């Protein structure tokens, strides 16, 4: 317990350094602006700005504080386009549109925006507090993990990814495999053997992480935006004078707390981020409500629950990223990759070896949350102005930012072709209902997965049974089985019950 | 159908990937029990059944993109490749100006706003990035700005 408070104290020392404080506030502000852009979510925002943040040459803790601020801000900003435009920035914001947009159409836009800001604040703060206690505890436990335990942890991560993310588990698994395969390109670090480089010098060192991120989340998004253009112009609802009252807050306080709790714990699960958390929180709230008839037509609970949950999951997703080196969501996978770019390896040792990064990041999230609440309540009108930026200028701007980012890091024009090609590939994946987050998770975890597997088998001299000898790994394999089996069994039982109830219903 | 075509291409790539893993990749000396070839082999062997499953049970029938949109997307990709090609030799300012003009006009902007926007992004973007943020961008033919 003492360690947590002294850690937090040292973290605030880092985060309150004037320059870092400026970065937290700037990151939150820019993040909100980007999140408010129609169709651009946190993951795209962080992806597009990551190489620029890297190219600025900051110290690692400053850069990661900036990126986390952008991530956090974009989670806040996403609700603006969801509520006023009915266009969710990413999968995690879909649930916000269900009740948020009807509220705005009922003439309660101001109330919806302020209520969701408060819900986001509570969810975010709640999860940062839990994170300050959970993180170090998990880290000190995970410090004893052997390579074979890590292999089991990865299996668990990919199992929960396949079973909880996306509509088709096979496609999600395949997406993760594509990421793992992309990661296997380049010279093998252990033996110096070139794999899948076909003699092309530009990919001898492997495909750069920044290139993959920008390609899949920047350029693919750009192509998507151009494709959507034909669909007609977007219509923004006006912000009115209505504002959230204490009575409203008292009405939804338990909803927000439940949403935060659900969000945090779902966020911790490897691979499952805001989209699952907000969907589960919304579903729980709707089922437990005594009168659920108004859900979908502008019920405050239906707005507060997913907003609290998706911000709580942003904090929850940081826990496995910082303590185990396994990202809890697509966006934290990008942050993990960013840390690796700075030669910082997140994992159980980070709280001891690089406390300024681990605790500095946590402290900056406390500050960021307060700052976001403060700038979001009065300035929401300014952010909403972002919705009216003409698409014909916004779209080229995204491409220019992506090109600047990629070029300024390595100055290799070859990378510019790579991001365009990966963008086309990512767009096809998206059109075919593959989720892109598993690809980036696979890409980030590929090296770690292979290294740990090879290390484990080197320890045992090639004996595969080492993978199941420790209790930690056996427990993780059981968890992996459960996370795959439970949704299947529950789904089958629910279907069976539905068929019992109406035997003649068409299958 | 769209799913099947994509999965078919993916299958060919995965088979190629696996064959290379089994035949070409080989360490001259055994450093560790697995070597560089085992991991790609495992990935390939797991991926192929997944792709076969998608081939057998596709769930996206068509991309739902009208022919006109295809034309616009093709033009976009061409512009991006041209931008990538011209980025270094022509320099950031000119390449960005040309790219922004082309794309914003295609997306329905009028001529004057597009001109102002493209010139603004090209010139302001260059000086903001190189002078203020100290990022590396190509000056290209406008060598006086270097």
TrEMBL record, chain A:
Give start-end of the signal peptide: none
Q: Which superkingdom heads the taxonomic lineage of this protein's source? A: Bacteria
Q: Which UniProt keywords apply?
A: Membrane, Transmembrane, Transmembrane helix
Spell out where the chain crosses the membrane.
21-40, 52-74, 112-138, 150-166, 173-191, 203-226, 261-282, 324-345, 357-381, 393-411, 432-449, 469-490
Q: Does the keyword Transmembrane helix apply?
A: yes
Q: Which Pfam families match?
A: TctA
Enumerate the spans annotated as DUF112 domain: 21-441
What is the protein name for this chain? Tripartite tricarboxylate transporter permease
Query: Which taxonomic lineage does the organism of this UniProt entry have?
Result: Bacteria, Pseudomonadati, Pseudomonadota, Alphaproteobacteria, Hyphomicrobiales
TrEMBL record, chain B:
Tell whether Membrane is among the UniProt keywords.
Answer: yes
Domain DUF1468 intervals: 6-138
Q: Name one Pfam family in it.
A: TctB
What are the alphabetically sorted keywords of the record?
Membrane, Transmembrane, Transmembrane helix
Matching InterPro entries, A to Z? DUF1468
> Which residues span the membrane?
5-27, 39-56, 76-105, 111-129
Q: Please give the coiled-coil regions recorded for this protein.
A: none
The keyword Repeat belongs to this UniProt entry's keyword annotation: no
What is the name of the protein in this document? Answer: Tripartite tricarboxylate transporter TctB family protein
Q: Give the species this sequence originates from.
A: Jiella endophytica
């Amino acid at each position: 317990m003492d360690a947590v408070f002294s850690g937090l104290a040292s973290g605030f020392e880092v985060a309150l350094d004037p320059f870092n404080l400026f970065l937290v506030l700037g990151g939150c502000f820019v993040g909100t602006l980007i999140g408010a852009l129609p169709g651009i979510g946190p993951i795209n925002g962080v992806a597009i700005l990551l190489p620029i943040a890297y190219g600025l040459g900051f110290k690692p803790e400053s850069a990661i504080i900036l990126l986390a601020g952008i991530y956090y801000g974009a989670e806040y900003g996403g609700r603006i386009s969801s509520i006023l435009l009915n266009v969710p920035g990413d999968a995690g914001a879909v649930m916000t549109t269900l009740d948020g947009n009807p509220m705005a159409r009922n003439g309660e836009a101001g109330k919806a925006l302020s209520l969701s800001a408060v819900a986001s604040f509570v969810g975010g703060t709640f999860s940062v507090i839990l994170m300050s206690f959970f993180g170090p505890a998990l880290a000190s436990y995970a410090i004893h993990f052997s390579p074979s335990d890590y292999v089991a942890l990865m299996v668990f991560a990919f199992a929960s990814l396949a079973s909880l993310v996306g509509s088709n588990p096979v496609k999600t698994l395949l997406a993760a495999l594509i990421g793992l395969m992309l990661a296997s390109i380049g010279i093998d670090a252990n033996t110096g053997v070139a794999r899948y480089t076909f003699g092309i010098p530009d990919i001898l060192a492997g495909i750069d992480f920044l290139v993959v991120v920008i390609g899949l989340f920047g350029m693919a998004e750009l192509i998507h935006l151009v494709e959507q253009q034909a669909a007609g112009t977007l219509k923004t609802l006006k912000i009115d004078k209505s504002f959230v009252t204490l009575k409203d807050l008292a009405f939804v306080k338990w909803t927000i707390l439940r949403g935060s709790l659900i969000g945090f714990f779902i966020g911790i699960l490897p691979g499952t981020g805001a989209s699952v958390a907000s969907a589960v929180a919304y579903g729980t709230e709707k089922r437990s409500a005594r009168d659920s008839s108004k859900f979908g037509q502008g019920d405050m609970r239906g707005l507060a629950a997913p907003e609290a949950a998706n911000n709580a999951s942003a904090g929850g997703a940081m826990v496995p990223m910082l303590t185990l080196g396994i990202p809890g969501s697509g966006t934290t996978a990008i942050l993990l990759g960013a840390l690796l770019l700075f030669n910082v390896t997140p994992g159980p040792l980070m709280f001891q070896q690089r406390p300024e990064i681990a605790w500095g990041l946590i402290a900056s999230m406390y500050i960021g949350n307060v700052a976001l609440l403060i700038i979001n309540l009065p300035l929401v009108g300014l952010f909403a102005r972002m919705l009216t930026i003409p698409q014909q200028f916004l779209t080229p701007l995204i491409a220019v930012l992506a090109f600047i980012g990629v070029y300024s890091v390595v100055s290799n024009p070859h990378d510019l072709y790579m991001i365009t090609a990966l963008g086309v590939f990512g767009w096809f994946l998206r059109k075919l209902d593959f989720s892109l987050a598993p690809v980036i998770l696979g890409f980030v975890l590929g090296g770690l997965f292979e290294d740990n597997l090879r290390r484990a088998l080197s320890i045992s001299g090639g004996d595969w049974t080492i993978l199941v000898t420790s209790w930690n790994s056996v427990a993780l394999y059981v968890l992996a089985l459960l996370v795959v089996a439970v949704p299947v069994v529950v789904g089958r039982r629910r279907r069976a019950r539905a068929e019992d109830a109406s035997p003649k219903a068409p299958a | 159908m769209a799913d099947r075509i994509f999965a078919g291409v993916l299958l060919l790539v995965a088979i190629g990937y696996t064959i290379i893993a089994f035949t070409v990749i080989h360490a001259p000396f055994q450093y560790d029990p697995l070597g560089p070839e085992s991991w790609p082999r495992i990935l390939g062997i797991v991926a192929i059944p997944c792709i076969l499953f998608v081939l057998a049970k596709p769930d996206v029938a068509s991309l739902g993109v009208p022919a006109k949109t295809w034309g616009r997307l093709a033009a976009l990709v061409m512009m991006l490749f041209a931008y990538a090609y011209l980025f270094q030799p022509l320099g950031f300012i000119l390449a960005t100006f040309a790219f922004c003009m082309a794309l914003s006009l295609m997306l329905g902007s009028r001529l004057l706003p597009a001109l102002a926007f493209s010139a603004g992004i090209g010139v302001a973007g260059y000086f903001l990035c190189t002078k203020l943020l100290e990022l590396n961008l190509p000056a290209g033919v406008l060598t006086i700005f270097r």
